[in-house]
Amino acid sequence: MTINWKGVYPAVTTKFTENDTLDLALFKKNIDAQLEAGVDGIILGGTLGEASTLTEEEKSTLVRTTVAHVAGKVPVIINIAEQTTKGAIAAAAKAKEDGASGLMLLPPMRYAATDYETVAYFAEIAKSTDLPIMIYNNPVDYKTLVTLDMFEELTQYENIQAVKESTRDLSNVTRMKNRFGDRFQILSGVDTLALESLAMGADGWVAGLVCAFPRETVTIFQLAKAGRMEEALAIYRWFLPLLELDINAQLVQNIKLAEVAVGLGSETVRAPRLPLIGTERKRVLKVIEDSLASRPALPEVEVYQ
């Protein structure tokens, strides 16, 4: 499957049962809500989420289950975050075997690779597979900045096609567009900068709170691309307190609480994560409850392709 790398790509949460096994029935219920809202792809194994707690067998199960469930309606992307080039190449091969449509690729984990080493890492993985690749550029959380000069070196690999832009520097969208035109599709990776990034020319949105609010997320994107920015902004301003739950160390717990509130998930997380307690739990629940009480009606909008 070719990937358009445009639109809304949910970084979906992993659902667990009370017995700490994958809750595939609940997982598929959430996927159905995403598809019904009109998302453009599904991303599995978000590194700031619970991917690091999953076994290789569980990752494979999630990919295979999602691929079978979406039945070709949208691409299924799996995240790769490995410590070695060898491990990343093996993960890419397994992703293809399991039916994934593409990869979201981070720089090497733990080791602080140089620019030269990071480019070589990306290049070796790209050469090992024909799956489309989106580079995840998040120096805030992972301490490695993929610079424009590094992207210049990666232009020779045709299957490196997109970037999840999480530098928190809005002007980086413009810098990428000025230097590379449409060579790389740019997807905003920070919920609280999504509309701003779309206004700067970003092609899509890798979203977090979409897990609980898929229709609102898709509507904001479609309105922005239709040039109906005032309408998009009105919904976005309502959404912002919820979106801020994604830029938090407990983002998984926060998003799962929101999923519970709308009937699209459970609060169950995998240890060492634990459900929120005390004052913080009350704070997050109030944000969710206040937002649901003022949830806006959504306008009709033509689908942007």
TrEMBL record:
Endpoints of the signal sequence: none
A Pfam family reported for this protein in Swiss-Prot or TrEMBL: DHDPS
SMART domains found in the cross-reference section: DHDPS
Organism per entry: Algivirga pacifica
InterPro entries referenced in this protein's UniProt entry, alphabetically: Aldolase_TIM (IPR013785), DapA-like (IPR002220)
Swiss-Prot/TrEMBL keywords: Lyase
Gene3D superfamilies: Aldolase class I
Name listed for the protein in its UniProt record: Dihydrodipicolinate synthase family protein
Similarity comment: Belongs to the DapA family.
Keyword Lyase: yes
Repeat in keyword set: no
